[in-house]
Every structure is written in structure tokens, then in C-alpha cells.
């Protein structure tokens, strides 16, 4: 789009410019906090001006306007800055690669010294180009609270060296956090996370980045089947697989294969492989559980003490064990987690599922009820209450 | 980021750590100090980016129930046993963890009482359920 003046610039293209312009400003020596504020103002200006008059080079335009804002801010601050005229100099276009810019800003936003909530908020604003209002809506907090969170995060970055490579593992975790925060308010954080992960895969060859993108796509593909028309949760084994997004699955599988080809597996690639096996089964009965179990074995082998360091993986593996070696074996696996996950709803929900697989409806009913009492999500709580009531009434949940 | 409701009670809950008279019997400067402290808690939460809401409730309570078809709602406003729970107000916060929520609750509970001594009031900490579609299938 850039450099083609006749093309109208849509919102996505505009937002894609955000990390590039910001990276240019920060690399030039601007303070991250001030540069980010200036860019937000430039974006507002762009939304006002561009519909009438789209600049030839939108990126240079944003850089120039943001630079002027920075200069204005400095001028109004004090007269001691007299070097600002240099700031009008346009950056050399193409001086840095687009991918480098995205990665650079992601590393700033996902600085390990920031709290996860701050990393998420800053990433959505400085890389995603969302407004503070949109981010606040997505997390159901007042705009002032989100504004405060963002400015604290930016202040925390002051004085930090931002020119060295950051921690990619943190970036991946932040993007996954954004993904799991879900579809809320007017902003679809799932789509946003997928967009950011896609940008990241253009910026790095790291297979885990592609693993994360694949995981998001392969999970998201099932979204249309995850709820019935009443908004009730439909579990994986009962979903209408015809509703799954085959195009998204195909892309996810393609991305995953290219990641696995690097022969450097990690948790996101493994989780994506498990998701792909579910997506690949024409019916729940055709699920390749032995293969899923093999991937879970790899997943728990990534940590020295999986029960403490990655209990979610051990719990997922227990389900696979239940399907491959029998419900009793699966339940024994969950026993190892009692101390770590015993107060979490998912542990009880999995045990309910395994008891049911075992044909023990009364134990299943009790486990589902325990799970419902601990649920932290309304839809899940409702689902578990229904499961408990059904199991206690002696009605089996048809197992495929 | 989980949300928590920190509930303050006029009465109810565990036995008080130490008894204290109702606020209208405190020395005026103690009342001022108490209110200034709580205002500062709110300001601190705002500055931290953890604030969602804070409200106080009046003491008046009316219990209402369905009265049946074509009947007016049935109400009762007392008398209530002195021990029954009566919520005074809440803070809603959006924090990193349960530990952080407990920390903030303890901070609220350190509010100064008569003579500036911490009240050590019991705070009821409750997690708010999410209402949003799941992005992954449960294990």
C-alpha cells in the first residue's frame, strides 16, 4: 500500500504502520513513552486528514507529524532543548526492514520487567495500534485505569536499554495471553492476537513463533462450533465438525508443518500438533488418541517437574491417557495433580469426564458439581452445573 | 487479569479482631483520618491501573420476594437479627493475581480507627466470574 497514492488506506494497513513508525522514532533516540504518545496523536490526525487527502507516503507522513508533536511537547516543556530542528528530518525510507521494526517494538512492549497486564496493554497499543478506550473495553476496566496502566508501563521502560534483543518467549506468552482474553467488547482480541502473531512470523524465523500462530489458528477454527444457538458450551466431542473453519485449519496445518520442519520443537508447536490432530478427526470417535498422547509425552518432557511447572500439560495428558489406556489410568494421572490443581475447576471437570468415561455417573456428578463451584467463567459454570445435574439424574452423556 | 470484589460489611462475618464502636462515636479527627485513608486507597488503585469501581451502600435494607400472580411484591424491612450480614460497600479491582487482591484487602483493612489504631476489619474477597466466549476447548 505504501507508496501507492491511489490506494485508499484501510484501518488494518494504517495500524500495520504503527510499530514501524514507532520503531523509527525510538531508534532515532526518542524516548519510547513520548514517541508513543506523539504517534497516537499523529494517528488521530491521520483519521481526520487522510479521508480527504491521502499522503503519498503514509509512513513518512506519520513520522513527520509525530516528530512535530514531539518537538512541540519539548518546546512547551522548556527552552533548553534547542536541537529539535533536526527532528524534522525525515527518516530514510527503507532504512530498516518492516519485520525488524515489529520485533523491536514487541521487545520493548514485552520487556521482562513489566507485569503481564502492562505488557498486554502496551503491545495492543504500540504494536496493535488500538486506542486506550478499545483496550479498556476489551478488559472491562475504566478507560482511566487502562490509561494509567499504559503510562506506568511506559514510565517503567524509561532508562531501560531498548537496543538489545529482547526475550522472544515473553513476546509469545503475551500474544497468547491476548488470544485467550477472547472476543470481548468492540474489539476482537482473538483476531488481534492472530494478526500480531502473523506479523511476528514475518519478523523471526523462530519456529515457536510459527507454532504459536498455528496453535491460534487451529483452535480458532473450532470457534463456530464451540457454542450452540443458546450460547451454551458444546464440548469438543459433540461439536458439529461441519462448522469448523476448514480454511483456517488448512492454514494452521501449513504453518505448523513449516515450523516442525525446523526440527526445533517447543510447547506451542506441540500444542498446535495436538490441536491439529483434533481438527483432523472426521468424528470424535476417529480421534487419534495414541498420537495425541505421544505429543503430550513430549510436552510434559519439556519441564523437569511437570506437575509443578506445567500442571496444565499433565492434566491434558491425563485425558489422553484416559482415552488410550482407560479411564482408571487417566484418573490415576489426575491424582498426581491433586495438591497443585485440586482447588481449580478444570481438575474436577476432567475427573468428571474420566469418571463418566468409566461409567461411574454418580462420581462424575459429584466431580462436575465440585468443578461448577470453582468455575471462574459464567458459561463454563453453567455448562458444569448442567453436566452435574444430568449425571446425577443418571442420564449418560453420549460418548462417541 | 482476574477481577475481585472486596466487600466491606457494616456487620456480619467473622468475629472482629478487636471491637470498635460505630464511626459516629469516634473523635472527629479519627473520622477524618479514616475517610482520608480510604480516599487514598482509591487514588492508589487508580494510579496502579487496578481500579474498576468503588461504591458505598446505605444501611437501609428491604427484602423483597415474588408475591404470586396478580399480587404485589412482598417486602419486609425488618427487624433483622443483629448478626445478619449487611454489606457497606465495595472496591472492584482488576489485578494480576489472587495474592495481589488479598494484599489490597489487607491494606483496606489497615484503615485507621479510633486513636489512629488499625481497625483490622474483615474484608470479604470474592472473585468476579468472566462472561466471555472461550477461545480454547476445555481439556
Largest two-chain interface = A-B, 47 and 25 residues
Q: Strands across the major sheet of chain A, in which order?
A: 1-2
Estimated radius of gyration of chain A: 24 Å
Tally of helical runs of chain B? 2
Count of β-strands of chain B: 6
Number of strands of chain A: 2
- Side-by-side strand order of the widest sheet of chain B: 2-5-1-6
Task: Report the order of strands and helices of chain A.
Answer: HHHHHHHHEEHHHHHHHHHHHH
Q: What is the assembly state of the chains in this entry?
A: heterodimer
**What is the overall pLDDT average of chain A?**
87
Question: Quick recap of the structure?
Answer:
Chain A is mainly α and 400 residues long.
Explain what the structure shows.
The complex is a heterodimer of chains A (400) and B (139). Chain A is built from 20 helices and 2 strands. The N terminus of chain A is likely disordered. Chain A is mainly alpha-helical. Chain B has 139 residues and is an alpha+beta fold. Chain B contains 2 helices and 6 strands, in the order E-H-E-E-E-E-H-E. In chain B, the strands form 2 sheets. Chain B has a 4-stranded antiparallel β-sheet with strand order 2-5-1-6, covered by helices on one side. A two-stranded antiparallel ribbon of chain B has the order 3-4. In chain B, a hairpin with an 8-residue loop joins strand 3 and strand 4. The longest helix of chain B is centred in the N-terminal third of the chain and has 21 residues. At the A-B interface, helix 5, helix 7, helix 8, strand 1 and helix 15 of A face helix 1 and strand 2 of B.
Features:
heterodimer, A: about 400 residues, mainly alpha, 2 strands, disordered N terminus, B: about 140 residues, alpha+beta, four-stranded antiparallel beta sheet, two-stranded antiparallel sheet, 2 helices, about 25% strand
Amino acid at each position: 500500500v505504501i507508496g501507492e497514492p491511489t490506494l485508499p488506506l484501510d484501518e488494518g494497513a494504517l495500524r500495520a504502520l504503527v510499530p514501524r513508525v514507532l520503531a523509527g522514532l525510538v531508534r532515532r533516540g526518542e524516548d519510547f513513552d513520548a514517541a508513543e504518545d506523539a504517534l497516537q496523536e499523529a494517528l488521530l490526525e491521520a483519521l481526520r486528514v487522510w479521508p480527504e487527502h491521502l499522503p503519498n507516503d503514509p509512513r513518512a507522513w506519520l513520522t513527520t507529524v509525530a516528530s512535530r508533536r514531539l518537538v512541540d511537547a519539548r518546546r512547551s516543556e522548556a527552552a533548553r532543548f534547542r536541537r529539535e530542528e533536526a527532528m524534522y528530518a525525515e527518516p530514510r525510507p527503507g532504512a530498516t526492514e518492516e519485520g525488524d521494526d515489529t520485533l523491536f517494538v514487541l521487545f520493548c512492549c514485552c520487556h521482562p520487567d513489566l507485569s503481564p497486564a502492562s505488557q498486554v496493554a502496551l503491545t495492543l497499543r504500540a504494536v496493535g495500534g488500538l486506542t486506550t478506550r478499545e483496550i479498556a473495553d476489551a478488559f472491562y476496566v475504566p478507560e482511566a485505569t487502562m490509561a494509567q496502566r499504559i503510562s506506568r508501563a511506559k514510565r517503567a521502560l524509561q532508562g531501560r536499554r531498548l537496543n538489545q534483543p529482547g526475550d522472544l518467549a515473553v513476546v509469545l506468552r503475551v500474544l497468547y495471553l491476548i488470544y485467550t482474553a477472547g472476543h470481548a467488547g468492540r474489539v476482537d482480541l482473538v483476531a488481534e492476537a492472530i494478526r500480531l502473531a502473523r506479523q511476528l512470523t514475518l519478523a523471526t524465523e523462530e519456529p515457536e513463533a510459527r507454532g504459536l500462530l498455528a496453535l491460534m489458528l487451529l483452535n480458532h477454527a473450532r470457534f463456530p462450533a464451540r457454542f450452540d444457538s443458546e450460547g451454551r458450551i458444546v464440548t469438543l466431542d459433540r461439536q458439529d465438525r461441519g462448522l469448523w473453519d476448514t480454511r483456517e485449519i488448512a492454514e494452521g496445518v501449513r504453518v505448523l508443518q513449516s515450523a516442525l520442519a525446523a526440527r526445533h520443537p517447543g510447547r506451542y508447536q506441540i500444542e498446535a500438533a495436538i490441536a491439529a490432530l483434533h481438527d483432523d478427526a472426521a468424528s470424535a470417535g476417529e480421534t487419534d488418541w495414541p498420537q495425541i498422547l505421544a505429543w503430550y509425552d513430549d510436552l510434559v518432557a519439556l519441564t523437569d517437574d511437570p506437575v509443578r511447572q506445567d500442571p496444565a500439560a499433565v492434566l491434558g495428558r491425563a485425558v489422553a491417557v484416559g482415552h488410550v489406556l482407560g479411564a482408571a489410568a487417566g484418573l490415576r494421572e489426575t491424582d498426581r495433580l491433586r495438591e497443585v490443581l485440586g482447588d481449580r475447576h478444570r481438575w474436577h471437570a476432567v475427573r468428571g469426564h474420566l469418571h463418566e468415561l468409566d461409567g461411574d455417573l454418580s462420581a462424575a456428578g459429584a466431580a462436575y458439581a465440585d468443578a461448577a463451584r470453582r468455575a471462574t467463567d459464567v458459561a463454563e459454570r453453567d455448562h458444569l452445573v448442567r453436566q452435574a445435574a444430568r449425571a446425577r439424574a443418571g442420564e449418560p452423556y453420549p460418548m462417541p | 487479569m482476574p477481577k475481585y470484589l472486596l466487600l466491606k460489611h457494616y456487620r456480619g462475618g467473622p468475629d472482629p479482631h478487636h471491637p470498635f464502636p460505630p464511626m459516629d462515636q469516634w473523635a472527629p479527627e479519627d473520622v477524618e483520618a479514616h475517610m482520608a485513608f480510604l480516599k487514598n486507597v482509591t487514588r492508589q488503585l487508580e494510579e496502579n491501573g487496578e481500579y474498576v469501581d468503588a461504591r458505598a451502600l446505605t444501611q437501609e435494607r428491604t427484602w423483597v420476594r415474588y408475591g404470586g400472580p396478580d399480587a404485589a411484591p412482598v417486602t419486609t424491612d425488618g427487624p433483622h437479627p443483629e448478626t445478619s450480614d449487611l454489606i457497606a460497600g465495595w472496591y472492584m479491582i482488576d489485578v494480576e493475581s489472587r495474592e495481589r487482591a488479598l494484599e489490597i484487602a489487607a491494606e483496606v483493612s489497615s484503615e485507621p480507627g479510633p486513636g489512629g489504631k488499625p481497625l483490622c476489619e474483615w474484608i470479604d474477597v470474592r472473585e468476579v466470574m468472566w462472561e466471555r466466549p472461550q477461545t480454547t476447548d476445555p481439556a
